[in-house]
Amino acid sequence: MTASFRRALGQRFNPAGILFTVSFALRQPHLFLPHLSVRDMRSIDWAALRQVGFRGVVLDKDNTLTAPYSRSLWPPLADSLRECVQAFPGQVAVFSNSAGLREYDPDGSEARELEESIEGIHVIRHEAKKPAGSAEEIERVFGCPTSQLVMVGDRYFTDVVYGNKNGFLTILTEPLCLSKEPFVVQQVRKFESYLVSLWNRKRLKPVEHPLRCEAMKCVKDLV
Fold this sequence. Notes:
Haloacid dehalogenase (HAD) superfamily protein; phosphatidylglycerophosphatase activity; HAD-like_sf
């Protein structure tokens, strides 16, 4: 098995995510529910988030910032990303299950290429796939607790669960480009949506966050 094939397979199949899904779906389904859901990054007022007390932003990569497995920013998001960086200078980073994950990007080449394409925004190098792992590396990068950070991503099972179990404010975006996703990922998305719709019908609420009410005023086009 070549390194490139293993990397591609690993990014599509996430055993840690499946184990966390089974565990939390049975015991803690509220961890799957984002604090806020928006169409994409353009729906977020970054300056307003800064004003209500947040100190940094953690962004997922695939289908949040870029097309799946691309290393270039999705062009319509350029202005929003620039506004984010202006609101949080030096306090914006990417935390991805592809670029920067040492298992599939051991020399950091994908992370460096992505950093160049997004104007030097830091891509955090890390060991564990979301939703596994703690947020210690992220807290070291930002110099503040996760309760003062925003996690933005497009996946319930990875971005939202990871963010909620580690104390972030979680914002779910809709995927940018489903047509470029592998079939298996599309099927997992359907399963994610089914579970979340079931829990929403049962009126389950996301985990508490001290700034959630203020953050709701910082977005438009809630979904």
